[in-house]
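Exercise 7.
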Amino acid sequence: MALSHASAEPQFPGIAQSWWPMLLLFCSAIVYSIDKGIVGVLAEPIRHEFAIGDTQMGLLLGLAYSLLSGILGLGLGHLVDRSRRFKLLGACILLWSAATIGCGFARGFGDFFVMRMLVGLGEAALAPAAVSLIADMFAPGQRGKALSSYLIGASIGSGLSSVIPGWLASHDLGMLAGSSWRSAFMICGALGIPLAVLLAFNSEPQRRGLAGTAVDLSGIPAKLARLWSMRRLVAPLFGGFCLFYVALIGITAWTAVFIGRRYGLALPQFGPGLGLMLLVSGMGGYLLSGFIVDLPFARRPGGRLRFLALLPLLALPSAFAQFAPSSGLALVAIAAIGTAMPAVNVAMNATIQDIVPNDLRGFSHAMLGLLSAFTAGAGGPYLVAKVGESAGIGMAFVIVGVPVLLAASVCFVLAARTLELAASE
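Solution. The predicted structure, written as tokens, is:
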């Protein structure tokens, strides 16, 4: 199994040169999470207006978003490795912002499905490009904190995706498009347009980690072959991530519906609390994990993966939210997976940066995005909906969430052992 090895590199740019592009990436993560998460928060009014059931709503929450990103995501990852990443990001943000606005004009299930496919396609470029850019702007010992700083934006966006729809519903701003949920999509979609312009004109950092690469990775077949040669590590590593995200997306996509049905509350009654929970758990998780993954123990071979193996276990309380006696305690239980998720993202991204060369980073993250799009993005919400048809959404959290979280932990342990063995050899 071949791992990348750092060669002599020029000095990394300082914070004076990196703060502006990091701010743009931070804002991109905010807009990304808002436009991704708003459908789950508004699932009930969308479902009622389109006269569809939970299973069809599950397709809008999962498969619609994941379909195009899964099919074309590898191509985007390849472009990240070979093109100007900020210009690519600007174009992709413009695409998903326009598609989010288009959701507000959807006449039914089919129109909405197509718009969500375009949102997913545009957003598929963000993680590969951002991780690749951060690896070129920060030295290995600083990347955990840099990644967590960028990903805190995702937590802020997740919180806002719950607060904005609740605020719109309570203030009756439906005159923009006939209903409050449509107004929310239009307002949120418009946020990304000026950001796309700023990104497109930002300077590209120098790529690092290219010298000393033993294999030509300029083509997609060569990149696939390189990942295949690392399959003993990559398979359990990517498998653990996908399994964790089956539980994460399955639970969080249906959280608003679950709270509303289980405790008989309308969105304006619990939306601010849900947004606060997402914000606090996400920011707390990112701030803490950013420091942890840069500690000496975590930077040893397998250290970050041992840390990763603990996180699905810490997320288990979220699967038992059904048994909470109040909505507040249910949100506290669900916050467990919201806190574990940032740490999984930071540790996973830092690990991939370490084990693959620069010209494979974007493609590796796109491959991870492809696998998680179909297993977690499409499968998580759909599984919860199918199980929930007979058992209820709350019990579906238990039936789906518990086994996949335990399996994710086992996969990360296997990946850690593989990496430790490779290092010893």
